[in-house]
Amino acid sequence: MNSDAPLHERVAALVVSLTPGEAVVAEFMAANPALVAVSSTAELGSLTSTSDATVVRTTKKLGYPSFRELRRSALAISGRHRDPSKVLDDQLEQISGSDFGAKKVLLDTALLLRQFEADLDTDSWTRAINAMTSAARVITYGIGPSGCPADYLSICLHRAGKPSTSIKATGFSLADSLLDMNESDVLVVFATLRQFREIDVVLEYAAKVGATTILVSETLGEALRERVDVVLATPPTTTGTSDGVVMGMIVARALNLSVSAERQTDAVRSYERLNALRADIVGGKLDAEG
């Protein structure tokens, strides 16, 4: 193993040679470099339900002479991955070094999907679906690119007859969007990487009015776990050529279908009404009707 190889590459190369406990630690560290950079071996042992001894063994098997060196590596990774220009630079290097850029993106995305499937917390997923199904309304929130999966989920739920609205506002206008949130709502927040001030405000207000909160994120799960009802963690994307929004869209798609399946008859009837309205708008049968 190259002594300069970053943490996530070491984990990918060596995880098959680790014990189950060590693999849990290694994969957690690869997914949470910012947290590793500020944690002790005992704290990581607690976070992974293993032990500080397991963390130390994993550190050595990954080729680090000490845990301090591993933390230094994790700090460098987390700092670089918070800088969009550096992330893009790394991704473009990977594309230019591949035979076919599209294939590289597809392969990286496929790897992420397999990791997502393997790491999916089914208990958290079930709690999210139950909360959304029973809610009077589902509110989605996302800033910038994270607004794409938020919008998509809200549109799909609305079409399937589930009351839903999407919020993308920032600054003062956010206050108007939050004003009617109440305890019968479920709030789904898409926050891929960064904890903007608006995210804090949205979660604080949701807690104040008693709304149920679901967080979809690849980096903020541990930091915000005590402030939300459900965390749906997605795998880290800044080390490859895929993107966090892709994972967010996958989550949005799966949430919509899972919630709609719980109320299948109503969902199908809603889509029938939607199709009829579309036919009225175009003044005749739609192409899909033959």
UniProtKB/TrEMBL annotation:
Pfam families tied to this protein: HTH_6, SIS
TM regions (residue ranges): none
Ranges of residues in domain HTH rpiR-type: 5-81
GO biological process: carbohydrate derivative metabolic process
MF terms (GO), sorted A to Z: carbohydrate derivative binding; DNA binding; DNA-binding transcription factor activity
Protein name: SIS domain-containing protein
Organism phylogeny: Bacteria, Bacillati, Actinomycetota, Actinomycetes, Pseudonocardiales
